[in-house]
Design goal:
The protein is of the alpha/beta class. It has six helices and six strands; from the N terminus they run βαβαβαβαββαα. It has a six-stranded mixed sheet, sandwiched between helices. Strand 5 (134-138) and strand 6 (141-146) form a beta hairpin.
Length: 192
């Protein structure tokens, strides 16, 4: 990752250079395997098509501690810039992804979920209220939570995440903020 100019906040040598970021992808599901995980595959496909690196990809069951531990490990890895989680964001008893990951947030990004539901409304109407899509800063890493459907992952990736991790996106993007996020954030809750 390149550095920012302290006076202007501008990225230095990599602006407009098609910077590739490292993204870890987690699918939360009690029933999917790598072979049947179309949502995770959609995320990976969109990332690689855009020239980004998939740092890791895992599946885990809808279990609070397992989700939290997986995300915490990636957040602790300085080689991971972003994490994208799909699944477990609904309203059933087993949907615990937001609770598990929010416990790690040092700074929530509420606009992500708000924008996701607004965009989703055009496709699924009022059913969008069942989505608890979210995002936040966890230590030095930005984490996105998407619903488990392939359509929701495609929408979230194409309309929000890919533009925001593209260093060339204007007027601003999350990738150019990473150097400042990495230097300003307090440690993740529970990790000291």
């Amino acid at each position: 990752m390149n550095q920012t100019d302290g006076a202007t906040g501008e990225t230095s040598d990599l602006k407009r250079a098609g910077l590739s970021v490292a993204v870890a992808v987690l699918t939360v599901s009690d029933s999917r395997t790598i072979e049947t995980d179309t949502s995770g595959a959609t995320i990976v496909d969109r990332l690689t098509q855009a020239g980004h690196r998939v740092a890791d990809r895992k599946l885990c069951p809808d279990e609070y501690e397992t989700i939290r531990e997986t995300i915490a490990a990636w957040v602790a890895d300085p080689a991971v810039d972003f994490v994208i989680v799909t699944g477990g964001t609904g309203v059933t008893q087993r949907d615990v992804t937001p609770e598990a990951v929010r416990s790690l947030f040092s700074k929530p990004i509420p606009g992500f979920g708000e924008l996701f539901r607004w965009l989703s409304y055009r496709e699924i109407q009022t059913s969008t209220i069942q989505s608890r899509a979210d995002a936040g800063v966890c230590g030095d890493t930005i984490v996105f939570l998407l619903p488990g459907s392939t359509g929701a992952c495609r929408l979230g990736m194409e309309q929000i995440i890919l533009p925001q991790i593209d260093i060339d996106h204007r007027p601003c993007n999350l990738t150019e903020l990473l150097p400042r996020v990495k230097h300003e954030q307090p440690p993740v809750h529970g990790r000291g």
